[in-house]
Design brief:
297 residues, single chain, 0% helix, five-stranded antiparallel beta sheet, mainly beta
Length: 297
């Protein structure tokens, strides 16, 4: 999101003839369509200043290999390509992180993480669920607060890998079997890591000690109410003051609010997302609004 007189909101439309759609969010909470940058199957976008990158799940005809493209953020907030689509070295690109000239992409389908232009690390193994965890599935890569380390969630292996910036493994840590770690965030003081588990609909808490993760606890987020389809966690966000965690659960189609005090988490509220299959969630910079991307409307 980019702050002007209104707030620019960018949404990835991850279909072959989709693109990145830009809306204006008013102070009253209304969204107005502004424009669309046509791109093939964009599914994750990161903006820092006047630079942005987007992952593309399968932009090359006849191939499952993912791609990434650099974008410029123009003065009016619109996006424009600033380079060609670059292969990610794996299938199903789904997440990216960048700092300076270093760009890292997670490839869900091939269970790998790539430092673009440098190297790719492919995970091996499987988890206890024969359908969802038949192979590695890298879902994200996040920097540590000091930018020295990269933390990679592998849903297929129930494992968070810690790498240095050259993708040398430093350590690894397990979430509960079958939990399927998806995304993570650090506490504001950098002492704890909160890992959102997609399959377990839960949050696992780890103590962070200079490149090592020490497991502390796991907090469930589902209600176990009867409804069609499976429950699947998706996004995790932390409030600016670090006292609230927000989790989106698919199936129950809600945002779950947790009170957060260091390693202690407690569910304190739930809100419907107003649609089906919430895949991501962000807070506006003033935290007056939360914006949910529901995959099926």
């Amino acid at each position: 999101m980019k702050r002007t007189k209104t707030t620019d909101v960018y949404l990835c439309s991850a279909v072959p003839d989709g693109g990145i759609v830009r809306y204006a969010l008013s102070r009253a909470g209304d969204l107005t369509l502004l424009d669309t940058l046509a791109l093939p199957s964009p599914n994750y976008l990161v903006i820092e200043g006047d630079t942005a990158y987007a992952t593309l799940s399968s932009p090359f005809p006849g191939s499952d290999e993912g791609g990434v493209i650099r974008l410029s953020v123009n003065a009016d907030g619109s996006l424009s390509p600033a380079g060609e689509i670059v292969p990610t070295g794996g299938d199903g690109a789904c997440h990216l992180a960048f700092d300076g000239d270093d760009l890292y992409v997670s490839n869900y389908g091939s269970g790998s993480v790539t430092k673009i232009g440098r190297s790719t690390v492919a995970h091996e193994g499987n988890g206890p669920d024969p359908i969802r965890q038949d192979a590695p599935h890298c879902h994200c890569a996040f920097f540590s607060p000091d930018k020295r380390f990269l933390l990679v969630c592998d849903l297929g292996l129930d494992t968070v890998f810690v790498y240095d910036r050259d993708l040398n493994e430093v350590s690894r840590a397990k979430v509960p079997d079958g939990a399927g770690c998806r995304h993570l965030t650090f506490s504001r003081d950098g002492r704890f890591v909160y890992v959102e588990n997609e399959m377990g609909c839960s949050v696992s808490v780890f103590l962070w000690e200079d490149g090592r993760l020490i497991y502390r606890s796991t907090c469930p987020t589902r209600t176990y109410a009867k409804h069609p389809g499976p429950d699947k966690g998706s996004a995790i966000r932390l409030s600016r003051n670090g006292r609230r965690l927000y989790i989106t659960n698919r199936g129950e189609n809600e945002v779950v609010v947790l009170a957060c005090r260091g390693e202690k988490l407690r569910v304190i509220g739930r809100a419907p997302t107003g649609g089906d299959e919430p895949r991501d969630f962000v807070l506006t910079s003033d935290e007056r609004f939360g914006i949910v991307a529901n995959q099926f409307g």
